[in-house]
Amino acid sequence: MSPAYDPKATEEKIYKFWEPYFAPMAVGTTKSKGKTYAIHLPPPNITGSLHMGHALNVTLSDILIRYHRMRGYKTVWFPGTDHAGIATQNVVEKNLKKEGISRWDLGREKFTKKVWEWKEKYGDIIIGQLKKLGASCDWSRTRFTMDPAYAEWVKKAFVHYYERGFIYRGKRVVSWCPRCQTSLSDLEIEYKEESTKLWYIKYPLISNQESRIRNQEYIIVATTRPETMLGDAAVAVNPDDKRYKNLTGRKVVLPIQNREIPIVADRAVEMSFGTGAVKVTPAHDILDSEIGERHKLPQFQIINERGKMTAEAGKDFEGLKTLEARERVVAELEKLGLIEKIEDYKHNLATCYRCGAALEPLLSDQWFLKMEKLAEKTLKAVKSGKIKIIPENFEKVLLDWMEKVRDWCISRQIWWGHQLPVYFCKNKQEEISNFKFQISNENSSAEKYVVAAEKPKQCPFCKNCDMKQSEDVLDTWFSSALWPFAGLSQNDLKDFYPSSVLITARDIINLWVARMIFSGLEFMKEVPFPETLIHATILTKEGKRMSKSLGTGIDPLGLIEKYGADAIRFGIIWQTMGTQDVHWDEAAVVAGRKFANKLWNIARFVQGQTGISNPEFPCLAGRQVISKQISNSELQDEDREILGKSEKLKTEIEKDIKNYEFGPALHKIYDFIWHDFADQYIELSKNRTDENVKIILCHLLGDSLKLLHPFIPFITEEIHRRLFGNALIVEQW
RNA sequence: GGACGGUUAGCUCAGCGGUAGAGCAUUCGCCUUACACGCGAAGGGUCGCAGGUUCAAAUCCUGCACCGUCCACCA
C-alpha cells in the first residue's frame, strides 16, 4: 500500500466489483429476514448534467441503501430519468437554434426524433455520473418516464381519471408562455420583481338620465397593463366600498373602444389598492375571468398566443406586440385627457419557469384534473400521519397548498411528452365557438372525442373516419406523479410498494411529492412512501442559488476528478447538519480527502502491526486475525475504553441514521477514528507487542470500515478487500 | 402581503439551560519508521441588537434589525 490514497486507482475498479450486489437480495442475518427496503431516485431531468443538489440527494439515498443492505434488508434503489417536457424541449430547441433551425422548420416528427437522440446521449451521461458518485442503484431496473411500460401507465391513469369524472376539458384563462407556445400550471410560474408604472385611467361615467352624454364624472381605475383595457368588459368595485356604493349598476364608456361597460360589485376587489376600482378583462387575467364568470361578462380576446394584439383589439392595434400596444393606448388616453396620473410601481411579473418569458394569461381550451377529492385524500394521509414529512415544518407547505389548490391544468401545447389518449372525430364538429380566435385546431369544445388507452378501431361518431389523436401532451409532472409504481413489474410492486422513504428537495414538495401521494392513493390504494425526507438546498458560499445560467453552479464531477468521490460525499455530508441550507464550502471536501488519507494510513499501520503480509486480494490473513478471540483476561484499561467507545459509537450511528441525522453521524465517526482510534489508541499500541492489541486493532478497523462504508464506500471497500478479503458492501453490519 | 429558517472564531458551520467547539485558514516547532493530505503547540469569539425569565442564557420568552427560502390571482 502506498502512503497516499489514490482515488483514481480505486474507484472505477471498485464500482465494477460492486455491481452484482446492487440487485435486491437479503444478506446475512435472520434479524431482518423478510424485510424490504426501497428508494426511488427522483429521476433527474435529461436536460443536462447533474449538479450539487443531485449529489446531495444521491449521497443521502446511497447511505440509506448501503446501510440497510448491510443490515440484511432486501434492498433496492430504483434509478431512472425524467423526460421533463418543456425543459427538455427548450434545451433541444436552443441547441437547434445555433444551427438556425426552429422546431417548426423540422415539424413535430423530426423534432421529437431529435429530442430522443438527445435523451439517449444525456440519459447515458447522467447514469455515468451517478455511478461516479458511487450510487448503488439496481441498473437493471432503470426506467425512463417515456418507456413503453411507463407510457401505458400514464394512459391508464388519464383514462381512469376521465372515467371517474376527474378530468374535464374547458375553455379557461390559463397562464400561457408566448415563447414556448404552451399553457403552464400555477406551479410552473416564476415571479420576478419588476419596476413598472401604475397608470390611473379615467373611465367616463354615463349619467343616469342622459345616456351616453359625457359629463365631468369619472371612475378611475389603476392598472399595470393599460393595453388590456381594449378588452375590458366591466369595472369592478368592492360591495363594501362606500366610495362607490351608488355607482354599482351604472355604466361607463370604455375609452378608445367606446363600448359601454357596467360597474359591478365583487368581493375579490381589494379596497385598499389603487383607487379601489379595477378594470375587468375577462379574457386576459385569471382573477378577472372569475369575476367575469360571476357577472356573466363577455370575453374579448384581444391578445393572441404569440403575444400580439388581435383584430378584436381594434384596427389601430391589430398585430402590435403588447408593449407596443401599451404605448399607443397610453398616448391615445393622454390625448383624450383620460390619464389621471402615473406612478412608479414594483410588482411581481409572472414568467415562464423554463424560458423566463413574461407570461400572458390567455383564454384557451385545456384539460384539467379536478383536485378537490384528490386533495382531500392527500390531506387525510398527511394529517393522519400515514405520511410523515421530515422535518415536520414542511408539512405545512404541503397542507397549505393542498387546502386551497385549484384544478390542475394538465395539457401542454408542446411536442415532447405523452400525447393525451384522446381521439377526435375528423368529421363531426359542431359549430359553436364563441371566439373567433383559436389557440389550436382542437379548440372547438363542440368537437367529438373519445378518451381511451388505445385508438378506437372505428370512430363511434361518424363510423368511418381515421380518428386523430390529440396533439397536446401532458404536463411532465403528470407522469412523474406515477413514479413510485409506473413501469414496475408486478413482483417489484408486491415487494417494494410502498417504498421506504422519499428523499427530495423542498422546491418540489407540491410540484411532485403531493402529486405522487394522491396518485399512489388513487391507483395503488396506499401511500407511496411512509416518510418524505426533505433535504437541504446547496447554495453558493455567498448564499446564492446555484444556477447554470448565473454561472454559480459547481460541478460535482469536477470535484470528483480533483478529490475523489469519497471526499465529495464526505464534504457534502459534513456540511449537511440538519436541513438547514448549506453554503457550499470546498474546505469540507479538502477535509474529506484528508480523512480518507488518514483512514488509508490507519489501515497501513494495522496491516503492518498484524503481520498481514500479502496485501493483495484475496488475502485471508486479516480475516484470520480478526476472527481470533480477544482475551478478556489480558485486557488493559485502554483496551476496554476504546472497545467501549467503539461499541457506543455504533449504537449512536444507528440512531442517527434512523433519524436521518447524517451530518452529526459523520462528525462522530470522524472524531472517533481520528482522535480516539488513531491519536490515542494507535499511539499507545506502539508500546505493546501482545496478541490482544493486534486483534483489537483489526476489530477497530473492521468496525470503523463498516460504520464508514455507507458514507465513503470506495475507500472503505478497497481497504476491506485488501485486509480482510471479502466484500464490505454485503458485510453484515 | 403570508409562512418558515438563519444571525456563534477570518471563512463554512456544530452546540440549544451550568466555566465557548469542529473543519478550513493563520502562527510556531517537528520529514518521531501509518500518515507533511501528517504530528505537537499557539493565537483568535462581550455567541446580531434591546429587554425579560432564572441561582445560572449562545441556549428559554418578547420586541427590533438584517439575510435567505418558499408561498400568494392587489389589478
Name the quaternary structure.
single chain
Shape type: elongated
Count of alpha and pi helical runs: 21
Helix coverage percent of residues? Answer: 25-40%
List unreliable stretches of 5+ residues. 211-215, 431-444
Number of strands: 25
Arrangement of strands in the largest sheet: 6-5-14-16
Mean pLDDT: 86
CATH class assignment of one domain: Alpha Beta
Q: Span between N and C termini? A: 26 Å
Structural class assignment: alpha/beta
Strand content: 15-25%
**The CATH homology group name of one domain:** Valyl/Leucyl/Isoleucyl-tRNA synthetase, editing domain
Q: Main beta sheet, described? A: 4 strands, antiparallel
Can you describe what's shown?
This protein has 733 residues and is an alpha/beta fold. It has a domain at 183-360: Isoleucyl-tRNA Synthetase, domain 2. 39% of the residues lie in helices and 19% in strands. The protein is built from 21 helices and 25 strands. The strands form nine sheets. It has a four-stranded antiparallel β-sheet with strand order 6-5-14-16. A four-stranded mixed β-sheet has the order 10-11-9-12. Strands 8-7-13 form a three-stranded antiparallel β-sheet, with helices on one face. Strand 22 (502-505), helix 13 (509-524) and strand 23 (531-535) form a beta-alpha-beta unit. Helix 16 (587-610) runs parallel beside helix 21. The longest helix is centred in the N-terminal third of the chain and has 25 residues, at 108-132. The radius of gyration is 32 Å and the shape is elongated. The protein starts with 10 loop residues before the first helix and ends in a 9-residue tail after the last helix. It binds one RNA strand of 75 nucleotides through strand 8, strand 12, helix 7, strand 13 and helix 10.
